[in-house]
Amino acid sequence: MKFILTNHDELTEKQLYNIANIKSQHWVYPIDSQIDWIQNVYKKSDTHIFLMDNDVLIGYVAIAEISIVADEKNLNVFGISCLCVDKRYLNNGYGSLIMERALRFAKDNEKSICLLCKEKLVRFYERCGYVAINPKNIFVEQSNYNYKLMIYDGIKNNEIETLIRAQNISIDRNF
Ligand SMILES: CC(C)(COP(=O)(O)OP(=O)(O)OC[C@H]1O[C@@H](n2cnc3c(N)ncnc32)[C@H](O)[C@@H]1OP(=O)(O)O)[C@@H](O)C(=O)NCCC(=O)NCCS
Hints:
Blueprint: E1 2-7, H1 13-26, H2 31-41, E2 47-53, E3 56-70, E4 73-85, H3 94-108, E5 113-117, H4 122-127, E6 130-133, E7 137-140, E8 143-144, E9 148-152, H5 158-165, E10 168-171
């Protein structure tokens, strides 16, 4: 098995189709609408991480470059996006392995990392080293966000401290 990392602007047709396909196993929309979503949401310099077993896509995550205003402080961090594992391979540790690769990518780029998720996934991400933070308000693209914001706090830095203390967090884009 191996990881392949691809910049969004270098994604091949096949990779795009593979992402749409694996996403549609978990987020039930037609392939065409998945492809539109991927093309609209990601920016050129976002990164797609594929866990491959030869030609078979086992799991996937994207890393989006996001801007956050946390109590008037501007932060540029990575956002974990659309982590998913092919249904045939769930519960074999691949999801955690992909998260480890994503964390290494963030460390290599000296970026802090965060993610948005539903309550039921908090435990999974805690085991990957994330903590949920509880600001009064979270906005994503100026709309109220009512689920969980989690950050990786394995490496403490000013950005992480700012996010932990912030009462109002505004994220510039969906991811
Ligand atoms: C979340 C996901 C990537 C985990 O992948 P995985 O390869 O099965 O993960 P691992 O084998 O490393 O870890 C499995 C653990 O995560 C837990 N878990 C997996 N999916 C979960 C879910 N939807 N809700 C709650 N817990 C979940 C499992 O119960 C298991 O816990 P256990 O070890 O205590 O039994 C995978 O379940 C998936 O693709 N889910 C659908 C897409 C999704 O919701 N992604 C998250 C977007 S924020």
